[in-house]
Amino acid sequence: MDNISVTVAMPAFNVAKFIVESVESVLSQEFDSFELIIIDDGSSDGTPEKLKRYASDPRIRIERNSANHGSGISRNLILELARGECLLPCDADDMLLPGALERLSCCLHDNPDFGVVYGDILCLDTEGDRLCEKPSIVGQDASQVWDLFENAVNHGGSMMRTDLLRKVGGYAVGRVPDDWGLFLKMVEITKIHYLNGHVYYLWRRHPDSQSRRGINREALAHMIRETVERRKKRADLC
């Protein structure tokens, strides 16, 4: 596979129950020019065994961390390995919906001033095999909120230009949502465009999902202070 348009980034930690469904949602896309990079972040359940079935698939690269380092580090490792012009994140307990790769990549191709595009996501709040709440659609235009106070860009269902991701240094690392730190930097160098009403991603919230883990408020405050200082310096230069 010499010409890769999109790298699908899939960090995985103790997701044996979901990962086959997640991988298959990527492989079933009607889009040929992609690679899927999976980093097993030191899983202690059956995740590595589930991934063995994909070892010979040329579209997939599987790496394993010897210990659990966290999603931010794994995402940045994938960014180092990525060959695609664009990168699309897909967590290993979520799913891509049909058309995601083709339509998001076309949007970036047709709009060279966009560095990030994202749509709405279908949210399933689950516990065990049952829904805790009715499925819902989640999404809002990030340009309509103050990004220091609200992480409005849907990470799932987004696609980003790989060179810009590298330019800003990749994801934040720590207990702050790693995507929030990334988008705070990305908006300073490129346009982030919201595709209202376009649903390309299924977000599964369950008791072990990262979205249910607490936020380190001290780390969040530090990230915001860094952002303010960075933007102040940029304004002074301008």
Short description:
Helices cover 30% and strands 27% of the residues. It is α/β, with parallel strands linked by helices and 238 residues long.
Query: What's the end-to-end separation, in Å?
Result: 43 Å
* Alpha plus pi helix count: 7
How are helices and strands ordered from N to C? EHEHEHEEHEEEEHHEH
SS content category: alpha/beta
Biggest sheet architecture: 10 strands, mixed
Describe this structure in words.
With 238 residues, this protein is an alpha/beta fold. It has a single domain, classed as Spore Coat Polysaccharide Biosynthesis Protein SpsA, Chain A, CATH 3.90.550. It has seven helices and ten strands. Strands 1, 2, 3, 4, 5, 6, 7, 8, 9 and 10 form a ten-stranded mixed sheet that branches. The longest helix has 21 residues, at 217-237. The protein is globular and about 55 Å long. The mean pLDDT is 91.
